[in-house]
Structure formats: structure tokens, C-alpha cells
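Field guide to reading this record: the first block holds the primary sequence, the second block holds the structure written as C-alpha cells, and the final block holds curator observations. Each block starts with its own label. This record concerns Gram-positive cocci surface proteins LPxTG domain-containing protein, catalogued under organism Saccharomonospora marina XMU15.

BLOCK 1 — SEQUENCE
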Amino acid sequence: MSVSPRSLLRVVAASAMTLGLLAGTTGLASATNEPSPSDSRATVHGGNVDAGQEQKDPCGTAGLDGEPLPLDEDDPEQVRGGDGTQYLDILDIPEAMTVTGVVVKGGNGYNVYSVADLGQLPWEDLQAPLTGQNDNLPDISHWFVCGEKDGEDSTTTTKPSETGTTTETSEPTTSGTEPTSTRPTETTESATTSGGAAAATTTTQPAVSPAGDSGDLASTGFSGGWLLGVGGALLVGGGALLALARARRGKA
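BLOCK 2 — STRUCTURE
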């Protein structure tokens, strides 16, 4: 079976038209699948980013500084809405966190909210980008907050150990010697006068007794009474001899 040149040209032309239509349809479908802006405060991105799938640097992928920060989705004072709904409200951020932005994913794209564009808390009506031919607002599949935790104070308060030194003050001891007592001793001396008369002179000298000696002087058993008698006799005899000698000289 032979094919005429005209028939061959018709087949080629039909194939080209078919390929062109297919290419146009594919391009239109691709354009339709791109997410559309839904919020003037957000920047639209296609594809997926998820902090819960161990994706490397999800905040950096979204163009935000920091790392994903945990917020308590069950705390109505912090978060309202979120996963499974079309809107997310962030009402409060813990003081220990510094937020740089919020990522909201839904459909085939995600919105990135910068803190500079959000302004002061609360941040309400955060949403995913529009999707589909009719620019539908999809439910939020997941979201996360990027930022940094404020550095905790690493200064530890060390309670000083209570150590003390007990100083015992001892009372001064009184040291001394008891005062010594003195007793006068009587010393009797005999003197001979030129007239032959004997006179007794008594001289009193203090004698120092040892400390603590509170009794009488020790008795030695010596008695000097007989010496007094002998001394007196010698004085009388001497006087008589002197008188006799003078008498003899006078006679001569």
C-alpha cells in the first residue's frame, strides 16, 4: 500500500497540531498549580517546607533567620486555629523567644510572614496561599515559628559556705606572790663606857621572811642569858682593875 505525498503531509500536520495542543495544556496546568497570593503581609512560595520532617534548616529554606521554636498549640492564650483550619492566630510569644517570622503551609505552597510585616502582637488571620484554578484557600496542613531563644543567665548563685572559727577567750590568770611579812629581830650589843658603866644598845633591823611564811620564827634551842651574866662580870672586874691601877699611880 502506497501513501501519497498529500496524505503524508496531512498526517505530519495533524501530529504537530496535537503536540502543540498537549504542550499548551501542560503549560496551562502547570501555571494553574502555582500558588497565588492570599495575604499582602506574606511572601508566596511553591512546594513544601516542614520543620517536623527533619528537613535541614527549614527556616533558612523559607528565608528566615533562626530555628523552629516550639509554641503550645493547646494554649488558647498563645495560639488559636492552625492545623486543619484556614486561619491561624498567634496571640502571644513567650518572653524567652525572639521571633523572626512565621511559615504557614497549605495546598501546594506556603506563605512566609516576616515579623517586620506583621507588626505588634496579636498576629491574626495568618493563612496558606491560594491554590487551584479557582484560587481556593486551602486548609493549613502545618505551620511553625522561626527565631531564637534568648540566652539564659548562666550565672549561678553559689551560696557561701558557713565556716567560722570559734575563738575562745580565756580569762587572764592572776599570777603573783603573796606579800612577804617582816619581823623585827632584836640584836643586843654591849658597850663599855669610859666611866666603867655598861649600857645595852638595842638595834632593830627588818628581817625578810620567805613568801607564804605566816608562822613564828623557828626556835633553834640556843639561850644567850648566861652570856649576859658573864659580860656583866667582866665589865665589873675590868672597872675594878682600872680603879685599882689609878689608885696605885696616885700613891706613887
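BLOCK 3 — OBSERVATIONS
The chain has a mean pLDDT of 73.
Residues 5-33 form the longest helix (29 residues).
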